[in-house]
Specification:
mainly beta, 340 residues, 9% helix, two-stranded antiparallel sheet, Porin, 17 strands, globular
C-alpha cells in the first residue's frame, strides 16, 4: 500500500513539477506579462484581449498543453481620453521610436480591472485557474509610473484516474479510492510593476495560498502541495535607429524547493509593424519568436522552442501562439504604448 501511495505522489508531483514549476510557462511572456503580474491590469489605453495556446514538448505523450484567455481594461477618463502619453486620434508617433521615448510623460493616475482564464493539462492532471485582477497606476515622476495589482479567484484541479496504471494493482485499493480527484481551491496573487519609456521592472507572486492536492488519507500526512511562484522581470529599449529597437529582457523564476531558473529574451521591433526575437531558458531550450501588428484591431505572435534538455530525444520542441485583440482602441494604435 505504501508503494502505491508513493507511486501516486511521485506521479502527481512529477506532473506538477514538470520543468521545475507547477504554473504554466510562456516563451512569449514579453508579449503578455499580464499573465505573470496583475499590476499590468489596465496599463494600456484600450481593452486588451489575448488568447494563447502552447503545446510543450510535442511528440511526448502527456506533455503539457496550455490555453488561456486574458482581458484587461483601464478605468479613468483622464487616462482613457486624455492621457499625457497617448497618441492623438488615428495614430501618431510609433511607441518603439526614439522620438516617442523622448517625448514620453508618465500616465495619468488610473485603475485597471481584468480577468484571466488559464487551462493547463499535463498527463492525467488538468488545472484551470479563473481569476479577477485589479491594479492602480500612479505617475511617481514625470517619466516613471508605478502600478500595484492583485489577482484573486479559484483553481480547479482534476486528476483522471483512468490514466493511472500500477501493474495489476486492484482499483478498489483504499489508496486509489480515497484519491480526491476533483477539487476547487482559492487562488491569490500579487504584483508590482514600474515602467518608463525605455525600461520596466516588476515583481510578482502567484499561488500565495499553498494547497494540498489529490492525496489525503488518515494513514499519512504526505500530500502533494502547491507552492508560491515568484517572478522577477526587467527589460529595456536600445535604439539601432529611430524606428528599429532592441528590447532585451529577463525573467527569473523562484519556486522552492527546485533550483532558480531564468529566461533571457531579445526582441527586435521594426516600427510598429512587426518584430522578431530569440529566447534562452536555462537548462531547457532556445526559442525563435516572431510577431505581426496586423492592424489597430489585431496582432499575433508565434514562437518555437528547440529543446536542449534530455527531453530532446523524445520531444519535437514546443509551439506557442498568441492572438491579441485591441478593443475600444480610440487612438487606433497598432502596438502597445506602455508595454514593450
Amino acid at each position: 500500500m505504501k508503494r502505491i501511495l508513493y507511486a501516486i505522489v511521485l506521479l502527481v508531483a512529477a506532473a506538477q513539477f514538470a520543468n521545475a514549476q507547477q504554473k504554466p510557462q510562456y516563451t512569449q511572456y514579453i508579449f503578455n506579462n499580464y499573465l505573470l503580474n496583475p499590476a499590468l491590469t489596465g496599463i494600456e489605453n484600450y481593452t486588451d484581449v489575448k488568447a494563447g495556446y502552447r503545446s510543450q514538448w510535442t511528440g511526448l505523450e502527456g506533455a503539457p498543453v496550455t490555453g488561456y484567455l486574458s482581458v484587461n481594461a483601464p478605468i479613468g477618463d483622464k487616462f482613457i481620453q486624455g492621457d499625457a502619453s497617448a497618441f492623438p486620434a488615428s495614430g501618431g508617433l510609433n511607441p518603439s521610436s526614439r522620438l516617442y521615448t523622448q517625448q514620453y510623460q508618465a500616465a495619468e493616475p488610473h485603475h485597471g480591472i481584468g480577468f484571466t482564464l488559464v487551462n493547463d493539462k499535463t498527463g492525467p492532471i488538468t488545472t484551470t485557474n479563473i481569476d479577477a485582477t485589479y491594479a492602480y497606476h500612479l505617475g511617481i515622476t514625470d517619466r516613471l509610473n508605478l502600478a500595484v495589482g492583485v489577482s484573486a479567484g479559484v483553481s480547479h484541479n482534476m486528476l483522471d484516474r483512468s490514466q493511472l496504471h500500477f501493474g495489476g494493482v486492484d482499483d478498489s485499493d483504499p489508496i486509489l479510492t480515497n484519491l480526491n480527484t476533483n477539487q476547487w481551491k482559492p487562488d491569490l496573487g500579487f504584483g508590482v510593476w514600474a515602467y518608463a519609456p525605455d525600461y520596466f521592472f516588476g515583481v510578482s507572486v502567484q499561488q500565495i495560498l499553498p494547497q494540498n492536492l489529490y492525496v489525503s488519507t488518515s494513514t499519512t500526512t504526505t500530500q502533494n502541495k502547491t507552492v508560491p511562484h515568484y517572478f522577477f522581470t526587467a527589460g529595456t529599449k536600445l535604439f539601432l535607429s529611430d524606428d528599429v529597437t532592441l528590447i532585451p529582457s529577463v525573467l527569473f523564476k523562484v519556486i522552492q524547493p527546485v533550483p532558480t531558473t531564468f529566461d533571457v529574451n531579445l526582441k527586435m521591433s521594426f516600427q510598429d509593424k512587426f518584430w522578431i526575437g530569440g529566447s534562452y531558458r536555462r537548462n531547457d531550450s532556445f526559442a525563435a519568436l516572431v510577431g505581426f501588428n496586423l492592424s489597430s484591431f489585431v496582432n499575433v505572435g508565434y514562437s518555437y522552442d528547440f529543446t536542449t534538455s534530455a527531453l530532446n530525444t523524445v520531444s519535437n520542441g514546443s509551439h506557442e501562439i498568441v492572438i491579441g485583440i485591441l478593443l475600444n482602441n480610440r487612438y487606433k494604435v497598432t502596438c502597445p504604448q506602455h508595454t514593450f
